[in-house]
Amino acid sequence: MPNRRESKEAKKRNVKLVIEFDGTDFAGWQVQPGMRTVQGAVEEAISRVTGEKARLTGSGRTDSGVHAAALVANFHTQTNLAASRLVSAINANLDRDVAVLSAEDVSCSFHATRNAKGKLYRYRMSRRPVRPVIDRRYSWWVRGPLDVGKMREAAAYLVGTHDFNSFRAEGSIEKNTVRTITSIEFVESRDCLDICFAGRGFLYMMLRIVVGTLVKVGKGKTAPGAMADILAACDRRVAGPTAPPHGLCLMGVFYH
């Protein structure tokens, strides 16, 4: 006969969540004392549902004001609630700017951060002559024309494995600044320009600094070929400004 401890351990589960949120009123993903964060809000909701102290492991951190269409996280629990029931129960304890899209039982070895193979981010810019109202929380209004052809030319220098120290925000604690961008795609519409970045992982504020630099290229203030020199310099001072957070959205995390 198994003892009580073994019986209890046998019920332990690892649950994978896919979470969507509007980052406008959050101080980012990671729990911070006295601040409203996505991790903190979802952990509190899980605790209310399961009666356990929840600890979420996220696929990565997002900055204050950055959004996510599909951030992945996992947590260990002993609740008997089916994964499908967890979705509605957790969402009933969340505010309107964050929701769990799905939940599933996964192997106890699954780790949302370490097992991630790639991420897809989208940065959206509004190109309207009049400032956006409906989309003001989700796009950066860039006034005046942009030469998207030159921006594409400059972006090509960033694809591949490079030292992205020039695009790392001050105060970043990462010691290894080498990252791999697998693709950068531009999607144009009448009112918007989306830049989609795919890669294994990114430095703190890296994509926002890349976007700010590409906008300088698009406005003719920086030559497309200068991007190679900016990369080689490994100096934040030579890159462009940091684009605002509200244009950035985590679109997906890949595990295969």
How would you portray this structure in words?
By secondary structure, this protein is of the alpha+beta class. It has two domains: 4-106, Alpha-Beta Plaits (2-Layer Sandwich); 120-254, Alpha-Beta Plaits, CATH 3.30.70. It has six helices and ten strands, in the order H-E-H-E-E-H-E-E-E-H-E-E-E-H-H-E. It has helices at 4-10, 38-50, 83-91, 148-155, 206-218, 226-233; strands at 13-21, 57-58, 67-77, 98-106, 118-126, 140-141, 160-163, 178-188, 192-199, 248-254. Strands 1, 2, 3, 4, 5, 6, 7, 8, 9 and 10 form a ten-stranded mixed beta sheet that branches. The longest helix has 13 residues, at 38-50. The radius of gyration is 20 Å and the shape is globular.
SSE blueprint and pairings:
Layout: H1 4-10, E1 13-21, H2 38-50, E2 57-58, E3 67-77, H3 83-91, E4 98-106, E5 118-126, E6 140-141, H4 148-155, E7 160-163, E8 178-188, E9 192-199, H5 206-218, H6 226-233, E10 248-254
Parallel strand pairs: 3-10, 5-6
Antiparallel strand pairs: 1-3, 1-4, 2-3, 5-9, 5-10, 7-8, 8-9
